């Protein structure tokens, strides 16, 4: 110490300098923070996640938004509903009429005419069959020529062809009447009218043109997430998912799920085997049993945007930073088998027995060669 004090006396300017107390405090803080940061990077856990964005959809296809189309060509004569109106299955939505207002009456008259033709053909057929029987009897008695009998048979065949043609025409008329009578378009299921094609009231519509859109009000909801192809290979059915619904206040920490607020739990229901046109894979997420329910329909409607984080393996913070900087994929751990597979012990025993039997067989073969 004495030598150190003597050395300091040689540098009078340096000895007169005194560092500020603030600088000393900052230096101590930096010196303590660096080891803590290193320890945190090495030992603090971090939950890896596969992020994705998507929307809320109905699980049952019948509960999704449906378009009601015109069944026959024509024009909309009357609307029975308005935008936003609730409807039940079978309620009328619109009435489509043909451009010819008297078409149904003419079809009815044509049907009556065809029925009269069928009745006349049936009577003529009955008379022709009687003539065939009479001609056959006269031919057997030798009182009529064979030509008369053959002409009677030809008349029966001609009346049969006319009767078949009349019945086919009746079928076509009935089909036309059925199609034209389907002018009243009805709601396919319970729901609410989302939009109407009001332009159909002033223009001609064809069969299949949409008239209205019906959206169901109650449906089993799931979340449709679009996940990158690099991450979807590690996603398995039943994995937990954290969800943030659009318009719902939330604070998300993907690595520390217990700290997040306003998030909801789900689990992976299914994964599409092929990618969408955008190159992303669709993952369906259902509510997690035993966890708080998702927000109600008034807060999260069908089609609302959702952000999700599929929870993967737990690693250290330092490894996660290193992975992100190097753009490496997520960590993957093969599931550990809880017990031996069926037949595995038997196969090993058979292999051991074969190994033991092989030396004995070789020794017997060598002994036989020596005897020779």
TrEMBL record:
Sequence intervals crossing the membrane: 21-47
Compositionally biased tracts (Basic and acidic residues): 348-372
Positions of the UniProt region annotated as Disordered: 334-372
Keyword Membrane: yes
Protein name as catalogued: RND family efflux transporter MFP subunit
PANTHER family named in the record: MEMBRANE FUSION PROTEIN (MFP) FAMILY PROTEIN, MEMBRANE FUSION SUBUNIT OF EMRAB-TOLC MULTIDRUG EFFLUX PUMP
Entry keywords, A to Z: Membrane, Transmembrane, Transmembrane helix
SUPFAM superfamilies per the UniProt record, alphabetical: HlyD-like secretion proteins
Record InterPro entries: MFP
Statement: the UniProt record of this protein carries the keyword Transmembrane: yes
Superkingdom per UniProt: Bacteria
């Amino acid at each position: 110490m004495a030598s150190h004090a003597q050395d300091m006396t040689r540098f009078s300017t340096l000895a007169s300098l005194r560092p500020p107390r603030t600088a000393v405090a900052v230096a101590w803080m930096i010196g303590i923070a660096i080891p803590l940061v290193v320890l945190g990077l090495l030992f603090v856990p971090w939950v890896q996640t596969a992020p994705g964005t998507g929307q809320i959809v109905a699980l049952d296809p019948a509960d999704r938004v449906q378009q009601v189309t015109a069944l026959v060509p024509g024009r909309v004569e009357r609307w029975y509903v308005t935008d936003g109106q609730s409807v039940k299955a079978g309620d009328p939505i619109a009435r489509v009429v043909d451009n010819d207002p008297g078409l149904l009456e003419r079809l009815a008259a044509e049907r009556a005419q065809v029925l009269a033709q069928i009745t006349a053909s049936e009577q003529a057929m009955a008379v022709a069959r009687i003539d065939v029987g009479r001609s056959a009897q006269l031919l057997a008695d030798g009182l009529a020529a064979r030509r008369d009998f053959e002409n009677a048979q030809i008349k029966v065949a001609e009346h049969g062809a006319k009767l078949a043609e009349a019945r086919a025409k009746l079928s076509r008329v009935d089909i036309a009447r059925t199609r034209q009578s389907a002018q009243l378009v009805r709601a396919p299921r319970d729901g609410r009218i989302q939009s109407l094609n009001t332009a159909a009231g002033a223009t001609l519509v064809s069969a299949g043109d949409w008239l209205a859109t019906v959206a169901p009000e109650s449906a089993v909801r799931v979340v449709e997430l679009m996940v990158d192809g690099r991450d979807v290979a590690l996603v398995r059915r039943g994995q937990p998912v954290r969800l943030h619904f659009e318009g719902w206040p939330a604070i998300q920490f993907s690595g520390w799920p217990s700290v997040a607020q306003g998030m909801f739990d789900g689990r992976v229901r299914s994964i599409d085997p092929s990618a969408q046109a955008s190159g992303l894979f669709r993952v369906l997420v259902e509510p997690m049993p035993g966890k708080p329910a998702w927000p109600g329909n008034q807060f999260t409607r069908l089609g609302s945007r959702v952000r999700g984080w599929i929870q993967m393996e737990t690693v250290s913070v330092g490894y996660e930073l290193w992975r992100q900087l190097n753009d490496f994929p997520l960590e993957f751990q093969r599931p550990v088998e809880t017990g031996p597979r069926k037949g595995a012990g038997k196969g090993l025993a058979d292999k051991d027995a074969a190994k033991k039997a092989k030396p004995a067989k070789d020794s017997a073969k060598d002994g036989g060669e020596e005897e020779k």
